[in-house]
Amino acid sequence: xxxRTSPWRxxxxxxxxxxxxxxxxxxxxxxxxxxxxxxxxxxxxxMLGDFELTVLSDGTVDLPVDKLLTNIKPPQxxxxxxxxxxxxxxxxxxxxxxxxxxxxxxxxDTGAGNLFGPTLGKLLANLKAAGYQPEQIDAVxxxxxxxxxxxxxxxxxxxxxxxxxxxxxxxxxxxxxSAENMKKAPADAQSGFQNAMAMLTPYATAxxxxxxxxxxxxxxxxxxxxxxxxxxxxxxxxVESKGQKLVLWGDLLHVASVQFADPSVTIQFDSDSKAAAxxxxxxxxxxxxxxxxxxxxxxxxxxxxxVTPEGKGYVYVPANYTTKQ
Length: 325
Fold this sequence. Notes:
Elements: H1 7-22, E1 43-48, E2 51-63, H2 65-68, E3 69-70, H3 74-83, E4 90-100, E5 105-108, H4 123-129, E6 139-141, H5 147-150, E7 154-155, E8 158-159, E9 165-169, H6 170-176, H7 179-184, H8 190-205, E10 209-212, E11 216-219, E12 222-226, E13 235-241, E14 244-248, H9 256-259, E15 266-267, H10 273-290, E16 293-295, E17 304-310, E18 313-318
Parallel strand pairs: 5-6, 6-9, 9-10, 14-16
Antiparallel strand pairs: 1-2, 2-4, 3-15, 4-5, 7-8, 11-12, 12-13, 13-14, 16-17, 17-18
């Protein structure tokens, strides 16, 4: 009886025959390919109910966390970093968040612009790579007026987002826009006031600066939440659509590998470290209890995930990668 050969067996036999023949042919030398040494454009997209969220990277910056973190002893810090296979300085993400509500395009924070050197200031390039133009932005929500969050408001000496209204807490604007407060500040801290004035004045002049007070809805589905501590008017932003919720934390934390496990750890950037720690503990507990999404400016890009309790602290669970829209 004649045996029939299945198509897949025949295909495998053909591949093996070709491979054995190829082994007899000398390999042709190829020139080494040059290393590219760049990442793909820094944007990450996901849906939140009916809203489209696009996280935009402004780049990364090395932070000497061993010199900046407070309320933690050096051996404890080294151990916490080691668990995450890190050591100081820690390459730290600067993330911004773009929400397309279907009716408005809202950007939360603007990165560093040209205020932090060449490793940051990538926001506009990544915004365009993600399919949007600066002129399309309707509103810019600022969590606080540190340079790595407001520096992208200008492109050169012009408004980077010419059609956008800038929203931030009145307490934040009042503090950083005060010449009197600037005079009281140490000499090496006065540039923070100067930067805030330079970045916000063009929007104020164009009647495009709208400070708010307290917890208030700024855009349908997007609400400001007072979170003073890191700065006098630091704000979080809660985004909700179709029963899904995301809270954008600004600078609620800086070093995920340390501060999730121990929220009491503070940083020298805090204007009121005690209040900042209290706000962090409150936010972690609420996110863990309610199970909503969180987004953080300085958690490794894209900085979107959930918070889970563990022992006396918490664990950050990054978003599972998705291509679904």
